Hints:
The chain is an alpha/beta fold. The chain is built from 11 helices and 12 strands. Strands 1, 2, 3, 4, 5, 8, 9, 10, 11 and 12 form a 10-stranded mixed beta sheet that branches. Strands 6-7 form a two-stranded antiparallel sheet.
Amino acid sequence: MAFPLHRMRRLRNHPWTRRAVRETRVGVEDLIEPLFVSEAIRDRKPIPSMPGCFQLSLDHLVEESRQSFELGIGAVMLFGIPAEKDARGSAGYSEQGIVPRAIRALKKEVPGLFVVADVCLCGYTDHGHCGVLEGERLLNDLTLELLARESTAYAEAGADMVAPSAMADGQVAAIREALDGAGFDDLPILSYAAKYASAFYGPFREAAESAPQFGDRATYQMDPANRREAMREVELDLDEGADMVMVKPALAYLDVLESVAEVSPVPVAAYNVSGEYSMVKAASERGWVDGTRIALEILTCIKRAGADVILTYHAKEVAKNLEEEGAGSRR
């Protein structure tokens, strides 16, 4: 029973039928917007490798987040840039650090906003690695203690969720124990469970001022060639109490994302990372592609592969596009 009885184009001929039979939909409710808040500036500072993104002062963070919230983006992820760094990343777990202050400001000024705090030390250490070092070796178990302190500081400031990204073995269990012990047993953990040692993070490291001062992160982040290892990482984090797991990056790892989504009993997030964003922006600025359409297509692919939640720097432009598309379909 094929052509001419069956004509696949019949349901593509009108915008209404195309929308009606669409199998995968991206909505603003699926998005988390990553934002960079800096202790060292009083305005907003453009990030050269990430057009349209900025390092933000506290005041500008509040304004930027309010705009996102008004567009329907209900959640943000915070990355802090301290004025001073040290070998142990102490600004990351200080109660008066930039992220706890940002959380308190957002909860006061944009009370309906869901605030996720990234938990890592790379942005706070003077060496740019994600934990405590002995020579050039990262000390996993000492790092766990500091990640637990950082998570508790963010919880006490009012964070709605913490998201450990350091890829330290046992980090979810250490954080869960610390949160529960401090009375935050209801606070969820979004684990960067399958985080690869990717070249796609380059622009982020400029934005967060977190590039390692020597070596790389291959001893704790995953080899991009490995998929089975990702499944083990996810399983371990689930056993340790993760409430949501993440695959990072997203676009070049859709196979991993699909595999994780097929077996995960908890929601799955995917991070549409800085390099993926910046490539779209660079091509769009040169007039080679329609950047907004490409962005929405990428997010749709990520959703189709199994992501329940997508972290993306495209959040605002996609939200505006969806708003305009919705208004057009109602006319």
